[in-house]
Amino acid sequence: MKTCTIIAITLAVLTGQALAQERFGDWVYLRSSDPFDDSDRSAVAVINDDGRALMFKLMDDGLNVIYYWDKYFGGDSDNDVIVRYRIDNNPPSGEQYWRMLQGNRSAYIRMNRVAGFMREARTGRRIVIEVRDPLDGERIRSEFSLNGLDRALQRLRPR
User: Fold this and answer.
1) What percent of the chain has pLDDT above 90?
2) Is the pLDDT of residue 13 over 50?
3) What is the C-alpha separation between 48 and 142, in angstroms, rounded?
4) Residue 12 has pLDDT above 80, yes or no
5) How far apart are the first and last CA of the chain?
6) I need a labelling partner for 138 at 20 to 30 A (CA). Which of 10, 21, 36, 98 fits?
């Protein structure tokens, strides 16, 4: 299955229908709108060979960063998982609590960290993300290309 198709399916599961696709390096832009108020719900995403995805998605509260690992995690009492990441050869981030989305197979970064994450990711070549389930300690690690992310984000939120 082609990467664009896999991304479209992944995003459809998380966000609803995608209306159009456009490719920027390894990233795909998916135009989408809310069916009730027509607000922009577009996203850009990259998917790795394991079917895991990293996405930037417009939601009610603004631009969100979502990591989709496609395996059920129990999380903690606040429905959080522990995430850390490393972009290129930069020092790894500290452990952060990311809130899981419905289905407990993906999580999003807290809004106060989105701008810093995006700033660092836009200039990188690759990112490694690790999610740990506080319930049982299980870990999943994924690597994603950042090739094309800056152009994809410009398409998502033109300046």
Assistant:
1) 74
2) no
3) 8
4) no
5) 34
6) 10
Neighbours of 39 (CB within 10 A): 11
DSSP category for residue 60: T
Question: How many Cβ atoms sit within 10 Å of the Cβ of residue 4?
Answer: 15
DSSP state of 90: S
Residue with tokens 């452990």: 95
Go through 76-104 and write b for each residue having 16 or more CB atoms within 10 A of its CB, e for each that does not: eeeebbbbbbbbeeeeebeebbbebbeeb
**For residue 36, what are the contacts with CB-CB under 8 A and spacing of at least 6?**
none
Q: State the Cα–Cα distance between residues 137 and 141, nearest whole angstrom.
A: 13
Structural tokens at position 71: 């395996």
How far, in Å, are 23, 38, 42, 62 from residue 35 at the CA level? 24, 6, 12, 17
